[in-house]
Design goal:
The structure holds two protein chains of two kinds.
Chain A lengths: L2 H31 L4 H6 L5 H11 L5 H13 L13 H36 L4 H15 L2 H15 L15 H35 L2 H8 L4 H30 L2 H6 L5 H10 L3 H29 L5
Helix pairs in contact in A: 1-13, 5-6, 5-8, 5-10, 6-8, 7-8, 8-10, 9-10, 10-13, 12-13
Chain B lengths: L1 H4 L4 H13 L3 H10 L4 H15 L8 E6 L16 H10 L4 E3 L5 E3 L2 E5 L5 E6 L13 H9 L11 H4 L2 E8 L2 E6 L6 H4 L24 E7 L3 E6 L13 E6 L3 H9 L5 E2 L4 H8 L4 E16 L9 H10 L2 H8 L4 E3 L23 H11 L5 E7 L5 H14 L3 E7 L4 H4 L6 E6 L5 H8 L14 H12 L3 H18 L2 E2 L2 E10 L2 E2 L8 H4 L7 E2 L2
Parallel strand pairs in B: 1-10, 1-11, 14-15
Antiparallel strand pairs in B: 2-3, 4-5, 5-7, 6-7, 8-9, 9-10, 11-18, 12-16, 12-17, 12-18, 13-18, 19-20
The chains are: A mainly alpha, B alpha+beta.
Chain lengths: ~325, ~525
Amino acid sequence: MTSGVLNLVLKRLGIAAITLLIVLFAVFFATSMLPGDTASILLGQAATPEAVAGLREAMHLNDPAILRFLRWLVGLLHGDLGTSYANEMPVAALIGGRLVNTMKLAGITALLSVPLALTLGITAAMLRGSVYDRTVTVLSIGVISVPEFMVATLAVLLFAVYLRWLPALSSVNEAHSLTDLVRIYAMPVITLTFVISAQMIRMTRAAVIETLSTPYVEMALLKGASRSRMVLRHALPNALGPIVNAIALSLSYLVGGVIIVETIFNYPGIAKLMVDAVATRDLPLIQSCAMIFCLGYLLLITTADIVAIMSNPRLR
Amino acid sequence: MTDKITNWTSADDAMVENAIRRGASRRELLKMLLAGGAAVAAGSLVLGRASQAVAAEPVSGGSFKAAGWSSSTADTLDPAKASLSTDYVRCCSLYNRLTFLDKDGVTQMELAESFDSKDAKTWTVKLRKGVTFHDGKDLTADDVVYSLKRHLDKAVGSKVAKIAAQMTGFKAVDKSTVEITLADPNADLPTILALHHFMIVADGTTDFSKGNGTGAFVLQTFEPGVRSVVTKNKNYWKSGKPYLDSFEFIAITDDSARVNALLSGDINFAAAINPRSMKLLESQQGFELSKTTAGNYTDLNIRLDMDPGSKADFVAGMKYLVNREQIVKSALRGLGEVGNDQPVSPANIFHNADLKPKAFDPDKAKFHFQKSGLLGQSIPVIASDAATSSIDMAVIIQAAGADIGMKLDVQRVPSDGYWDNYWLKAPVHFGNINPRPTPDILFSLLYASSAPWNESQYKSEKFDKLLVEARGSLDQAKRKEIYNQMQVMVSEEAGTIIPAYISNVDALSSKVKGLEANPLGGMMGYAMAEYLWLEA
């Protein structure tokens, strides 16, 4: 690693930190703009003015929101995520188990979909214009076009309701063996793989095709390199940048964007927690979830950037 | 097809039951049902229900998994804070109330042995002896005093603070006697204390995460917004109950996901099924539906204190313009009972059955609109998903208005913040009211001059007087008479149009037995856990 690369990386990390701060502020202001506050929402229809005032008093909600937000930020620096307004539990405890669940789901999906997408994308690029290539292209466009709630619902109808092979709910707490685990994760993982693979396949294919038409790949061909060596050794490293970026974008969706899959399979992940938190205007919880989504996104994008930099000899 | 079964009355059930006792064959029964106008598919559902009543003794054992329709991180085991069906179900399995409402809406004793009062103002409550909490502590008068007094503390954030405020004095006379003093006489106290929020917790409890109650089940796991698991309380004071070894409750917000989980056998019980899913369930073997009309309603509120509601003819016109039958048929898809513009539902013992719903009459409506001088002007009507089915109702009323030249401009607003920003505020808007156990609570909350939720700003001194009179009287016949009169007044004079009482339909596996309707709502008034059993 030369100092140039180090500089670039440090710069990226600095930008990431600033982005995070901006996002937290934006989320805070968006939350403040929403009508209703925690006390009135917790009381629901029974919110008479005096009841709301009493509860606000009891929950210490009378300080200006910006003060509470800054207090939360200061707490964050000490590694404290604060306490949920809605049920007075530490936010860390609420998020903990669900973050693990989300990570599990995202991890398994990534392990399945990334190799699959790369293989399909690269082979389609190598066999450009063949029946195989067209099939892959058409299928991936088709899958992109089907909304995920439909994929998920059809999967449930087929595998859970009619065939009874798989459970309709993904109750992670009841997994006691490897078989259980496979049965529970099968449908959500398949659904998510459908959703994110298509984009990766198309990006990989496009990037590899582009580099295949460059002079140095032609040179390798003239030197008598085999087709597979030409692709894997000469073309792929140069196509890595855009491919890794596509992978990062697709995977970042798995951190916070899987609300539909969580809803349909009743999977206790972090996306639904954030939706709940917004519904009750639970500021500390909203902020913590937003921070985690943003961190996940930044981590993936920054990693992708760094990989792209490292794979580019001119930047190295 | 689905609206056929909703015509089914308890009388029909009795007829089928008698036939089964006489040993009628399934074929004969189906004939009977068809003669009664119920379709074959519905017939098998009803058969399931009717034969249940004749079924053998309940069997103990088994684990039961049910799914409600809503949950959030604000889920709580503190009865005072309970706000969602999810909370009620959990609290009912862990705690007991002093009284409860049975399937006919009659108040029965639970932790109390008796309620006595000479003037309806000072009440002596004798407690049942030999009842213990899950942690082994005996139930005493102190627990009851603490549980009831909590609601008066603003910091608790009780959902029933307003109703509890009438209780001004609490005294533990001895270990098993409590004296409750009210600000004004109220004959309904035993019924009021059957509300879920008045569950009895142990004296001094501030941390409710353990769910320490006297109820049928003991808490094992509770994750807010995810699930709860409770197991049989072996020392439960009701002999023989509960039947289930364990009861798990989750929420599946997505309607079709909830039905699919029932169909795939992941759960035994899915609460609040939407009418679209009913057809799917009826076509499958091994499932049943249970319908409850408890008195939840969506109403069209016309404020009498501002334009256009300040013109009496506009309100009268609107009452003729609302096609109640059509609303039940299409907006509620047959799952409801036609209402007559007053809040006391047919499930309530004080319901005035002689008060007939206003007939749909566009000509009369047009006449009144013309008289009010508003015909041809555009009147905004606010509707939202927050008030169940209000969008569909608004569209039906709008179409009827268009036919006679009355322009109603339906404005659809988001549910988020609806109760804060539009409800009670807009001149013409929709509300939604959950079931309440007594006419007194309904009227005090919604129609008295000082009512906090006076949806149409209805003010009548005569009405207020009658309300106090009925509340303080211990003479049941006289109360019935007064409440009948008050229902007529609300129906005729107030600006709230209540087109229908909305039914709730729960779906369950045929293996589940013991479910009955209850005036406090679906899932047996949320208290099903201790009554249900699973067929071996």
